[in-house]
């Protein structure tokens, strides 16, 4: 019994010793908690991809030949980290973000930083990479458009970090389209068509057929006025410019009335009758401007669509006679006379003389 009592007394003394030790060290738990916090804080500092030492690793030569880094021009010495002589951008295999690389004096390339993931770029259409006004400027073109997207990145060579300062875009094709339409409104159709031809990826910016119809209507109105003023050459040249526009090709590539109706079915504002009126006038302007070959082409196109229009045959006959093709001219005059008689209209005397 005495031994049992001594055992419990000893156990109590031992437990009391530990309890006293805890009382003498009231900050022990706080220090342990602080130590855990320190470990946690140190870990968070490395969560930024630019702070990870693995990002600064050398890139194998075999991979360099594959990625082909684009060297950034105009980088001052102050913007280069220690031991780095060149900065470049590169798209790394199996990685979504663009990389900033540094080249050492031994020509080896190393990871330095990662471009912000929310910045849009098209690596296949890079337009500019340069260091301007303390910023890395990077511009690329959107796929199948003329939109140039640029970003200005603040670069801290000490911390090796990139920050997107600003981004902007400029669409050259959109600006050209505005300019082309402005010139057309000023009746400068030749200049307007020349600007249309400079637009990249035009299908992304306008419907070529609708654009051509709008231009033809405007040009015909002005050309008809010039014709009435006796300026036949300028009238013909004005419509020539429009029909040389690639968007107007569909109005010339017709086999007959059914073919033309099919082409115009999506453009109800531009009817077959309107097409015939403009093309017949165009054939007349060409004839008066002594552009006989094209006059013959246009008037033949008219009679192919509407074989019963007398004026196109008259213009054909005049054009053929003027270039010395008398038989073709007589055939055209006979068709003209036939349709005029059907309409009970008088035939010009020159036609009667030339038919004989």
Task: Give short descriptive properties of this protein.
Serine Threonine Protein Phosphatase 5, Tetratricopeptide repeat; 13 helices; alpha+beta; rod-shaped; 5-stranded antiparallel β-sheet; single chain; 356 residues; 2 domains; 50% helix; 4-stranded antiparallel β-sheet
Per CATH, the class of the largest domain reads Mainly Alpha
Question: How do the strands of the widest beta sheet line up side by side?
Answer: 1-5-4-3-2
Helix-strand topology string: HHEHEEEEEEEEHHHHHHHHHH
Main beta-sheet strand count, sense and barrel state:
5 strands, antiparallel
Helix content: 40-55%
* CATH superfamily membership of the largest domain: Tetratricopeptide repeat domain
How far is the first residue's CA from the last residue's CA? 158 Å
Report the total helices.
13
Give the overall form. Answer: rod-shaped
CATH architectural label of the largest domain: Alpha Horseshoe
Low-confidence stretches: 11-55
State the domain count.
2
- Cα-atom Rg, whole angstroms? 41 Å
Beta-strand portion reads 15-25%
CATH topology of the largest domain: Serine Threonine Protein Phosphatase 5, Tetratricopeptide repeat
E-strand count: 9
């Amino acid at each position: 019994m005495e031994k049992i009592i001594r055992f419990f007394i000893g156990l109590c003394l031992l437990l009391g010793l530990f309890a006293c030790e805890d009382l003498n060290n009231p900050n022990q738990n706080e220090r342990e908690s602080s130590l855990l916090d320190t470990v946690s804080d140190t870990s968070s500092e490395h969560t930024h991809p630019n702070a990870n030492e693995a990002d600064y690793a050398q890139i194998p030569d075999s991979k360099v030949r594959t990625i082909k880094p684009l060297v950034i021009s105009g980088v001052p010495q102050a913007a280069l980290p220690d031991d780095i002589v060149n900065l470049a951008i590169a798209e790394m295999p199996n990685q979504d973000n663009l990389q900033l690389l540094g080249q050492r004096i031994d020509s080896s390339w190393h990871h330095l930083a990662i471009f912000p993931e929310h910045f849009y770029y098209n690596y296949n259409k890079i337009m500019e990479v340069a260091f301007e006004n303390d910023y890395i400027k990077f511009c690329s073109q959107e796929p199948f458009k003329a939109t140039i997207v640029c970003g200005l990145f603040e670069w801290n060579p000490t911390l090796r970090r990139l920050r997107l300062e600003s981004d902007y875009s400029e669409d050259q094709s959109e600006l050209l389209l505005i300019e082309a339409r402005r010139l057309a409104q000023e009746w400068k159709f030749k200049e307007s068509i020349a600007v249309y031809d400079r637009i990249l990826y035009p299908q992304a910016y306008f419907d070529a057929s609708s654009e051509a119809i709008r231009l033809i209507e405007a040009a015909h109105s002005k050309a008809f006025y010039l014709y009435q003023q006796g300026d036949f050459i300028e009238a013909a040249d004005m419509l020539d410019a429009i029909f040389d526009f690639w968007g107007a090709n569909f109005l010339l590539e017709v086999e007959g009335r059914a073919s033309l109706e099919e082409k115009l079915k999506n453009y109800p504002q531009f009817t077959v009758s309107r097409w015939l009126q403009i093309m017949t006038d165009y054939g007349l302007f060409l004839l008066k401007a002594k552009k006989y070959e094209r006059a013959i082409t246009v008037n033949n196109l008219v009679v192919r669509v509407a074989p019963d229009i007398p004026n196109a045959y008259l213009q054909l006959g005049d054009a053929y006679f003027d270039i010395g093709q008398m038989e073709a001219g007589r055939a055209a005059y006979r068709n003209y006379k036939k349709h005029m008689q059907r309409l009970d209209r008088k035939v010009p005397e020159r036609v009667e003389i030339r038919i004989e």
